[in-house]
């Protein structure tokens, strides 16, 4: 099993649109092969930090997810709503990888 924690700093003025937009991405991701869970949350420590917590059956499933058409749409939609890059941590039984 693969776990992913992705954190994105949001522009305060775009926070609501960012969260609304991500709901469509969540719905499509839940349909993907190997998706065990995929949810977005606002950080309890920083109201402008969006945290996505994911669980995938395999690394191949996660790789396919990153190439899914709805992810391309999401990246384009959200690009101007962020104050910095998304930090992605991939966690497996063997190691933690930070991208």
UniProtKB/TrEMBL annotation:
Keywords: Monooxygenase, Oxidoreductase. SUPFAM superfamilies: Dimeric alpha+beta barrel. GO terms for molecular function: monooxygenase activity. Residues 2-90 form the ABM domain. PANTHER family: ABM DOMAIN-CONTAINING PROTEIN, QUINOL MONOOXYGENASE YGIN-RELATED. This is Antibiotic biosynthesis monooxygenase. It comes from Bradyrhizobium uaiense.
């Amino acid at each position: 099993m693969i776990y992913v924690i992705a954190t994105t700093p949001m522009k305060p003025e775009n926070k609501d649109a960012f969260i609304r937009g991500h709901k469509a991405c969540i719905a499509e991701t839940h349909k993907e092969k190997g998706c065990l869970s995929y949810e977005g949350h606002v950080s309890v420590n920083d109201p402008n930090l969006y945290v996505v917590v994911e669980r995938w059956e395999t690394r191949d499933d996660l790789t396919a997810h990153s190439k899914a058409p709805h992810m391309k749409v999401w990246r384009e939609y959200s690009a101007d709503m962020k104050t910095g890059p998304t930090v992605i941590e991939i966690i497996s039984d063997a190691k933690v990888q930070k991208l």
